[in-house]
Amino acid sequence: MSLHARFLVLLGVLGVAVLASILVTVWSVRLLDREQRRPAEQIGLVLGTLNEVKRTLWDQAGEIGFFVHPDKIETLQPGEDRVFTPEEIERYRMLGARALSRLASLDEVEASLVRAGVNTATNLRVRIERVNEMGERYMLGEVPEEREAARVAAMDGLYYLHEFLGRLEARLLDEAQLSVDYAGRVQRRLMTTLAASVLSVLLTLATAAWLFRRWVILRIDQLRIAAERIGSGDFAHRVEVHGDDELDRVGRQLNEMMHTIVTMQAERIERERLAAVGEMARLLAHNIRNPLGGIRSLAELSEQECAADDPVREHQRRIIRTVDQFIRWLNDLLSISNPLSVEPAPEAIGPWIEGLLESHRPLAETRGASLTLDLAEAPETAHFDRRHLEHAVSALLTNAIEVSPQGGEVRVTIARDEARGVWRLAVADEGPGIPEEILDSLFTPYFTTKRGGTGIGLAQARRIVQQHGGRIGAKNRGTVQCAGSGAEFFLELSLEPEAKEATIGQ
């Protein structure tokens, strides 16, 4: 995931968390307000309406001659002797209608239906209508027995309504207290929810800060340290890279830049070194080649003038061989400092390597070593510069023969690797092996561990292989402490390489 995408995800999470917290807060406040205010308002409305109904019934009871105490209803005067005027009868009816109207208004209040119940409201309505009917019979009746029965029924109805409304008010007050208690519980629950929301936002912010520090701050600090180390000349420092986002790519590019700087410095030192050696070699060749040519010519003339059995003849031959060896050394010294250009062409590998081994058999026989060749997995042809690659392989063969013990074997193996598109030539010996600490220096110009060695052969072999676009290396076949474990030098070339221009020595 890229750094930009991580920031977008982080901002999205923060936005969702903050928005959710705001929504939860608004919802909680509104819910708490509704749960605490609305039921109280509705219960107050219901209680007020019931109180109006109750007062209306009291007024109605007074119209027909009843006296209403807080706990009971009594008759003011004998009911059978009282005569009611039309105005009193009409007022009684109006009070009854008002009581029913106020009771009907409770149907629109949710709290009355929930807390009082539909059956309770219906029962009240039926009872009030019954009281209205019995009161009118009492007020309009002419037969004493019927009036008395109606009066008793009205009085019983009013007494029942008085008791029932009192119980209903008490129950509503109890339920109001329960509503307040419930609202308190809801409030505590909502406060807990709010606290959890705030805590979640804080945890999200803390997590975001930690991730930002890990994803950005610490890694930018690593890049800053790397830049300071580069500025101080420490090009061996490397930035730790674990992913593939923007900062990882910057760190990888810094590492590549430092590697390039180290490589360029090494190449520059190598070029300067080779330039100095080349200048010295050309000066030596110019000043020594002519005298050496004269010495060799004089030695040849002296050899020809000496008799066949003259011991001086052998001395002259030694002089000639020494001069030739010294001239070859001068040529090698010049070749390592001269530009190198290879021209690969299709070549048959078998005949080429067999001829090269035959030219080295005399040297192997003088050392008591044997040369063997394994071409079982070798390609028939490959692209390489025959003349230059012979020099490289000759250096490997010569080193292997020189370190081989009496009766040792130098084995040359050529095989192809189709998966990698290369062919590999390996020269294995049974010598003492190579100390691990000098493995990386074997192909450095003028580095040698042999007495009388020049350190040119392997360095020139590396140049030739590199110009073929291949690689060359060495490794121990076992442990250095194990006698006869030997070493293996190898080179790998592409089956269809591209020639390269030399960069070292130009």
In short:
With 506 residues, the chain is of the alpha+beta class. The protein has helices at residues 3-63, 86-105, 110-116, 118-140, 144-231, 246-305, 311-337, 349-366, 386-403, 457-467; strands at 66-68, 73-75, 345-348, 370-377, 381-384, 409-417, 422-428, 471-476, 487-494.
Description:
The protein has 506 residues and is α+β, with helices and mostly antiparallel strands. The chain folds into three domains: 3-205; 246-335, Helix Hairpins (Orthogonal Bundle); 340-494, Heat Shock Protein 90. 66% of the residues lie in helices and 10% in strands. The protein has ten helices and nine strands. It has helices at residues 3-63, 86-105, 110-116, 118-140, 144-231, 246-305, 311-337, 349-366, 386-403, 457-467, and strands spanning 66-68, 73-75, 345-348, 370-377, 381-384, 409-417, 422-428, 471-476, 487-494. The strands form three sheets. The chain has a five-stranded mixed sheet with strand order 4-6-7-9-8. A hairpin with a 4-residue loop joins strand 6 (409-417) and strand 7 (422-428). Mean pLDDT is 80; it is low at 499-506.
What average pLDDT do the residues reach? 80
How much helical structure, as a percent, in the residues? 55-70%
Topology, number of strands: 9
Percent of residues in beta strands: 5-15%
N- and C-termini, Cα separation: 46 Å
Uncertain spans: 499-506
